[in-house]
Amino acid sequence: MNISIIGIGLLGGSFALAVREKYPKARFIGVDASQVHGQLALAKGIIDEAMPLEQAVPISDLVVLATPVNTILTLLPGILNTLPEQATVLDLGSTKESICTLADAHPKRRQFVAAHPMAGTENSGPGAAFRELLPGKNLIICDREKSAPDSLKLVEALFLDIGMKLFYMTPQEHDLHLAYVSHLSHISAFALGLTVLEKEKDEQAIFDMASTGFSSTVRLAKSSPQMWAPIFDQNRENVSQALADYIEFLQRFKTLIDDRDVSNSLDFMARANVIRRVLEGIEKR
Amino acid sequence: MNISIIGIGLLGGSFALAVREKYPKARFIGVDASQVHGQLALAKGIIDEAMPLEQAVPISDLVVLATPVNTILTLLPGILNTLPEQATVLDLGSTKESICTLADAHPKRRQFVAAHPMAGTENSGPGAAFRELLPGKNLIICDREKSAPDSLKLVEALFLDIGMKLFYMTPQEHDLHLAYVSHLSHISAFALGLTVLEKEKDEQAIFDMASTGFSSTVRLAKSSPQMWAPIFDQNRENVSQALADYIEFLQRFKTLIDDRDVSNSLDFMARANVIRRVLEGIEKR
User: Which InterPro entries does the record cross-reference, listed alphabetically (chains A, B) (predicted)?
Assistant: First the structure.
């Protein structure tokens, strides 16, 4: 079985590492705009060979699109065009609506599976890839009924085998929920990083003063702009609404502080404490 | 040497555990509004005995105020009143200006040392205390010249011996910097937690969908309202300004997203990426 990884970064690379451990007879082909990424992925044992996209697709049983989501939009139609009849193309993009809308317009839609592994770190590139990234995490599949049964089965089998838990929803549900539980977290971290950097132009003051509270909240501000700008753009309606909601809570809290309304301030935080139960649910997984 | 810990929570408890390991002949007296906290602290070996404040202070060599900062304001004058001549009272509060202003008005100011250990977790109470909390972290001492040399020496010796690194600044500098590098992080997490909870009234959706990105950003939303409400209130001017700055960055980013200005969106995030270097500095410590 030939599996082509398009975009051998954190996600594509980690997927390959997890799958190849279970499927040692599969052949992994890497396609990446960056020659350096290809070299590193070869040397790290993520892929068995590197080749250009147009050579890889026609010989693939499974094509995995693990590039930024704008690149997915650019590449997907062409990939479907040249994809062999029994083969499947899978995307791992962090947005789903734009990608699914595009795929729906293609005559070979049934050979496409729309997925999103809920996993990542703030690092990028094949150097960041590691086998343990995906196992134990959740995979979301959207519009599964629009994929051919065999294509869906292939994808489900692989991801279940590497230890992921599968969830199904529409692309609209996916993008709405992710705006709140993921995209907003990243934006809040970027903005927090900027706010602190702007104020503490002397970075030494930050070094001296920050405790791990700061580190964890702002960790996501290390994330790749090239990955996230297309995500926020494709999911702009939901992200914009999530931001509006978030800003409103912040303004409300600011008002409580300005008014010295300690009692309601306590309530505000006590309600947020409910997240403890939620997080314990997540951490138990 | 008798050391009284007033408020045997995460901080007071962890301080006692770290110090008693190095100073096995010291006697630790616990004072806490909660009888349960006293019982737990005794059973856990954090303190050697529990007693009311008015009994503890007159027999102490060092009194450590590790309560919420509003309680510190309430208790400090009375403690200074009854503190023996050669003894020292130390506070560990997360704000410094209000506390120092109050202390400055007391005739026995020189027996007071204003400090703040930059360390914590989102947990509270003696059950949360652990010996390794403070070692390796930073301690800030404010207005050191207003403390008697022996009082300062006692505090510095203890904290250095348990492995903390000492920094000195004015209470004003402390409160300003902390508004940005600490207090704002906590507020952003509280608000993020509320925004997500409000939207995802079905908590299961959050369980299913969140990845560790969400967990780390919102972890601080588990923090104690009783601890944080007084901090935000005492430091309200700086905190309000920090919030205003943060909200502005968020609104700016929202505008870039609404305008589909991907190029400036990339810039915005690239500037925030500078925090990577800052965080690596923190993590190396």
Answer: 6-PGluconate_DH-like_C_sf, NAD(P)-bd_dom_sf, PDH_C, PDH_N, Preph/Arog_dehydrog, Prephen_DH
